[in-house]
Automatic annotation (TrEMBL):
<dbReference type="GO" id="GO:0005634">
    <property type="term" value="C:nucleus"/>
</dbReference>
<dbReference type="Pfam" id="PF09088">
    <property type="entry name" value="MIF4G_like"/>
</dbReference>
<feature type="domain" description="MIF4G-like type 1">
    <location>
        <begin position="481"/>
        <end position="688"/>
    </location>
</feature>
<feature type="region of interest" description="Disordered">
    <location>
        <begin position="193"/>
        <end position="237"/>
    </location>
</feature>
<dbReference type="GO" id="GO:0005846">
    <property type="term" value="C:nuclear cap binding complex"/>
</dbReference>
<dbReference type="InterPro" id="IPR027159">
    <property type="entry name" value="CBP80"/>
</dbReference>
<feature type="compositionally biased region" description="Gly residues">
    <location>
        <begin position="80"/>
        <end position="91"/>
    </location>
</feature>
<feature type="compositionally biased region" description="Basic and acidic residues">
    <location>
        <begin position="228"/>
        <end position="237"/>
    </location>
</feature>
<feature type="compositionally biased region" description="Acidic residues">
    <location>
        <begin position="537"/>
        <end position="546"/>
    </location>
</feature>
<feature type="coiled-coil region">
    <location>
        <begin position="732"/>
        <end position="763"/>
    </location>
</feature>
<dbReference type="GO" id="GO:0000184">
    <property type="term" value="P:nuclear-transcribed mRNA catabolic process, nonsense-mediated decay"/>
</dbReference>
<feature type="domain" description="MIF4G-like type 2">
    <location>
        <begin position="706"/>
        <end position="980"/>
    </location>
</feature>
<feature type="compositionally biased region" description="Basic and acidic residues">
    <location>
        <begin position="68"/>
        <end position="77"/>
    </location>
</feature>
<feature type="region of interest" description="Disordered">
    <location>
        <begin position="1"/>
        <end position="97"/>
    </location>
</feature>
<dbReference type="GO" id="GO:0006406">
    <property type="term" value="P:mRNA export from nucleus"/>
</dbReference>
<feature type="compositionally biased region" description="Basic and acidic residues">
    <location>
        <begin position="527"/>
        <end position="536"/>
    </location>
</feature>
<dbReference type="GO" id="GO:0003729">
    <property type="term" value="F:mRNA binding"/>
</dbReference>
């Protein structure tokens, strides 16, 4: 049986499976074994095969191919067995004797380079020289193939940089000449094979012009002729240092990455260059002085006026992570001190307002990763660093394992090889869009992603800087590295990078995280399968030698990293569900090692909920309101992957506290979310009786509450009649007539006023439409769209829209998830506006009749506010996209007109468009789009001001700080200031004037201080 990506076992009968399990029938995806009875080649086979090229972009080096198949593709099928281009046999022609096609050989070469070190039997002393020979051979066949393969390897596999550095150092030992005949190297003919066109290196001439038949001079036979029939001897070709040529191309790629704002790839390239300044030790590949000059370009960015922290932090990280890879003796170079001074000057002016992240007692728990990176670098060589682990103790020196043959060593000594000088670079300036730098310079490209002209994974396509965010720390013991330890900083950075790079493939990402020990020195991480060390007094266990290395717990580091990224402020780098899925995959791959670390993390976070810091939290981070919500959301999703099983009895005693205590809110939230992820009875059976008695589990299953369904209800008959009308999909005019008749009967028979009768009529109509749509989301959407005009005619006034929101809340009081869905659709279809929802949310009190009791300790209340603010942001984003699209269209049309007229405003080679006449009339459609954008931004600003005003009234100057309701309110105000404001909005004139009118300093000093902290943060970050 064949697994995904491996050659299958052949058979003589049957059809080819997904991988080509049989040879007699149709070829499998990667080709099956051929058979004498006749088989067909696999997908993409040679001339003898029957595979077809897919219509979509599936070529072996296309970016779509690499991303669909574990980023680098599935290239494990053997070409000799009918794999890619393998030329599977037809009839009696078995594929064993066929030569693989040139494309299949290229694919196999790239796979060998990308999978270097993956095999469990990997030995650098053997495999790296072998890989070097393969690279040298391919360099003279297809130079661009080698360059592209290395670009992808460096930008996508940072954990292998020491191995690739050793490989490049091995290639740089001597220069080699092109082979006299390329035909023998390529193996010409057969199965679509043949020599590719020789591409010379810079300044090099090809030894011979290769033709399509694979011969170097036009005929294959002439390559081996001797005597009078032999051709005149060719001049000896110029020798090429392949390692240097590859590094020079990586330097070009580095500049391209920089222009395209691919900051991860930039950092990986600089890290590789830094490693190559020490390899080989006698004649380094890269000059240290040129590296220092290159790093100076990034330090010079730190002196830019109005520098944003997101940009400055990225430059500092690139510089310091490169310096950490240098030999400690190299850090005494004069240029290094200039870099050090520039970094320290930047850090001295860098201030983070932590009031926005926690109250005064807990602000110290939020750590700035950049500060610890600077501290780790500063500790190198200091007396305080005697107990810390240097980087050299965890990063393997792969090159030291390589040995040269005597002939190679003599040849290397005979050649004078100078270190490469890295080119001067210019860090591109900040764009007009701030952090969203999308294009490579042209104004016309600012709003669209840059084309993928170089290597790089999705997530690093020039979308901007990583940004500034603060992180927590769960563990502070010997199982994890210290935050300011040089080796620990490198290990944590690697874990972060793997998590970030593999967002597109969580399974491979989780697998690679658990395989990280193979890419670090032995002893860096503790072996979970190793026997426990004997303790004092234990005579039964033999004494083991003292282990080498720091012996950190890899699982604890990885779990801690993922959880703190979930809780990162102001927002995680990636979508939250990605981190959820990676943690789940880790537990599935290695449950015995990952689960204990995860359980310890959960219990530590839970124990500190509601603590005030200090000894009460036992060193665990204390979460605020948003942290509690994120913690509960992740924990519920995680339990849903493992049968919803948890030891709830351990937490049952904590449920005797106030229902607004964070521990009670957390447990109740988790159980509510579990019900959403499964069903009521299923979850109830997993909850012990002690928790059921505590009142944190709902009494009833989620569902609608149709008031008029009760036969005893006074208006049951009218509601039943109207329900039949709605279910029969009657026209709106008919439904309005029936409702009008119902209103008149209420006024005449029940002596109601017109306002009272309209209120009952509206409630009956809305509840009935909701009841018809209560079966599913699609049923609700159909009912809403069919009777949208009816509902809009019933809610023409602000008070009517408030009553509409109350009716929805009453109807879905036992199902808060569907309540949020309905609320979002009401906003989307403009049945209510943002002001209606905001005023209704803040008016929602515990004693509001008919609704589910809600206070600000209920995260759903905050989510309602988030849904409302998000709808406003969507309007702004949509208006921006409209303006940008029309602007690009206008520039292109104008450029085409100028080109046809031969005038100015033409598009140059770089795609830049010359500035057009400012007095030219503006496109009316574009002017209207700009006007709509301004309206949307003003609406957003006024909405935020209104929300701040409501919070200020709930948090007056004399409010008690010992009340849990106040604790939740302050937490949501912090989250509002962190997530809903940005640099542009908080400095807009509408916001500034609105805050001034609120007079927050006198009304609510706590809200005023948080707003000022938000201004400082958004201006800084």
């Amino acid at each position: 049986m064949s697994g995904y990506g491996y050659p299958p076992a052949g058979s003589s009968n049957g059809r080819g499976g997904y991988q080509g399990d049989y040879g007699n029938g149709g070829g499998g995806y990667n080709g099956g074994y051929g058979s004498p009875q006749g088989g067909r080649g696999g997908y993409g086979g040679g001339r003898g095969g029957s595979g077809r090229k897919r219509a979509r972009d599936d070529d072996q080096h296309g970016q779509n191919f690499r991303r669909r198949y574990s980023e680098r593709g599935d290239y494990h099928g053997s070409p000799r067995r009918g794999g890619y281009g393998g030329g599977g046999g037809r009839g009696d022609a078995a594929p064993y004797d066929r030569v693989p096609s040139h494309e299949a050989m290229k694919t196999r070469f790239k796979e060998e380079l990308w999978t270097l070190g993956n095999d469990s039997s990997y030995d650098p002393a053997i495999d790296i020289p072998s890989m070097a020979q393969s690279i040298e051979s391919w360099y003279f066949r297809d130079q661009s193939l080698v360059f592209v393969a290395f670009r992808s390897a460096i930008s996508e596999m940072p954990h292998k940089l020491p191995h690739y550095a050793a490989l490049l150092a091995r290639l740089s030992l001597n220069a080699i000449a092109a082979p006299v005949s390329l035909a023998s190297r390529i193996g010409g003919g057969g199965g679509g094979g043949g020599a590719s066109k020789f591409t010379p290196a810079a300044g090099q001439s090809p030894p011979r012009a290769a033709n399509s038949s694979g011969g170097a001079d036009g005929t294959e036979a002439n390559a081996g002729l001797e005597g009078e029939d032999a051709k005149p001897a060719q001049p000896e070709p110029e020798k090429v240092n392949v390692g240097h040529a590859i590094v020079q191309d990586l330097a070009k790629a580095f500049q391209a990455f920089l222009d395209e704002r691919k900051w991860k790839s930039v950092r990986y390239c600089v890290t590789l260059f830094a490693t190559l300044t020490t390899l080989p030790s006698t004649t380094p590949v890269v000059s240290l002085s040129s590296l220092i000059t290159l790093l100076t370009s990034f330090v010079s960015v730190l002196d830019e006026p109005g520098l944003r922290a997101a940009r400055g932090d990225e430059c500092v990280r690139i510089v310091l992570e490169a310096l950490l890879r240098l030999d400690p003796a190299s850090l005494n170079e004069p240029g290094i001190e200039t870099l050090r001074e520039g970094v320290h000057a930047y850090m001295s002016s860098r201030r983070i307002e932590k009031e926005l992240f926690a109250d005064g007692e807990n602000q110290g728990q939020w750590l700035d990763p950049l500060e610890h990176l600077v501290s780790a670098f500063s500790s190198i060589g200091s007396s305080d660093a005697s107990d810390s682990t240097p980087v050299s103790d965890v990063i393997p020196n792969v090159y030291s394992a390589l040995t040269l043959a005597p002939a190679e060593e003599d040849e290397a000594k005979s050649q004078v090889i100078e270190a490469l000088m890295l080119p001067m670079v210019l860090v591109p300036p900040e764009s007009d869009e701030g952090d969203l730098t999308l294009g490579a310079g042209a104004a016309i490209e600012r709003a669209i992603p840059a084309p993928p002209i170089t290597a790089g994974l999705r997530g690093d396509e020039g979308i901007g800087y990583d940004g500034v965010r603060l992180l927590l720390r769960l563990f502070d013991d010997e199982t994890v590295p210290a935050v300011d330890e040089p080796a620990g900083v490198v290990v944590r950075s690697m874990v972060h990078d793997i998590i970030s790079l593999y967002e597109v493939n969580r399974k491979d990402g989780a697998t690679l995280l658990l395989e990280l020990p193979r890419w670090f020195k032995k002893g860096t991480f503790r072996d979970p399968k190793a026997p426990k060390r004997p303790v004092d007094g234990d005579e039964d266990m033999p004494e083991e030698p003292e282990p080498l290395g720091p012996q950190w717990s890899l699982e604890t580091i990885v779990v801690e990293t993922l959880i703190v990224l979930i809780l990162a402020l102001p927002a995680p780098p990636h979508t939250l569900v990605y981190y959820y899925s990676v943690l789940t995959e880790l537990c599935r791959i290695s449950p015995t090692t990952v689960a204990p670390s995860l359980g310890k993390s959960v219990r530590k976070l839970y124990a500190a909920l509601g603590a005030s810091g200090g000894e009460e939290s036992a060193g665990a981070p204390v979460l605020d309101a948003e942290g509690v919500r994120r913690f509960a959301d992740w924990f519920a999703v995680h339990l849903s992957n493992y049968g919803f099983m948890w030891g709830w009895n351990d937490w049952a005693p904590d449920m005797d506290q106030s229902e607004k205590h964070p521990k009670c809110v957390f447990v109740k939230r988790v159980m509510d979310l579990e019900i959403r992820l499964s069903y009521f009875d299923r979850i109830k059976n997993t909850v012990p009786g002690s928790m059921l008695e505590a009142g944190v589990f709902p009494d009833e299953a989620p569902g609608p509450d149709y008031t008029y369904e009760d036969p005893e209800h006074a208006h049951n008959a009218a509601a039943s009649s109207f329900l039949r009308t709605i279910r029969s999909k009657a026209p709106i005019s008919e439904t309005e007539d029936e409702l009008s008749a119902f209103q008149k009967s209420l006024e005449s028979e029940n002596n109601m006023t017109t306002e009272e009768a309209e209120r009952v009529k509206r409630d009956l109509a809305v509840q009935t439409v909701l009841f018809v749509g209560s079966r599913s989301f699609s049923h609700f959407l159909n009912a809403l769209e069919r009777y949208l005009t009816l509902l809009r005619n019933l809610t023409t006034s602000p008070s009517a829209r408030q009553e509409l929101l109350t009716t929805v809340a009453v109807f879905w009081k036992r199902h808060p998830q569907f309540h949020l869905i309905v609320l979002d659709k009401l906003l989307q279809y403009r049945l209510v506006d943002t002001r209606d929802v905001i005023s209704w949310v803040f008016a929602l009190a515990d004693d509001q009749p008919g609704t589910r009791a809600k206070t600000w300790s209920d995260p759903d209340l905050w989510v309602m506010l988030q849904v409302t603010l998000r709808s406003v942001q969507k309007n702004v984003d949509g208006a921006k996209m409209r303006v940008e699209g029309l602007g690009r269209e206008a520039e292109l049309v104008g450029a085409e007109e100028d080109n046809r007229a031969g005038g100015e405003g033409v598009v140059d080679a770089e795609g830049d468009v010359a500035v057009r006449d400012a007095d030219a009339p503006e496109n009316p459609e574009l002017a209207m789009a700009k006007s709509y954008l301004q309206e949307a931004e003003d609406e957003q600003a006024s909405t935020l001001i209104e929300v701040l005003g409501y919070f200020a009234k709930l948090l007056p100057s004399d409010v008690s700080r010992n009340d849990w309701e106040t604790w939740w309110l302050e937490g949501w105000v912090r989250e509002l200031c962190r997530s809903s404001f940005d640099r542009k909005s908080i400095t807009s004139q509408v916001i500034v004037d609105g805050i001034a009118k609120l007079d927050l300093e006198n009304v609510s000093p706590s809200v005023a201080s948080l707003v000022e902290a938000a201004k400082a943060w958004h201006d800084f970050a």
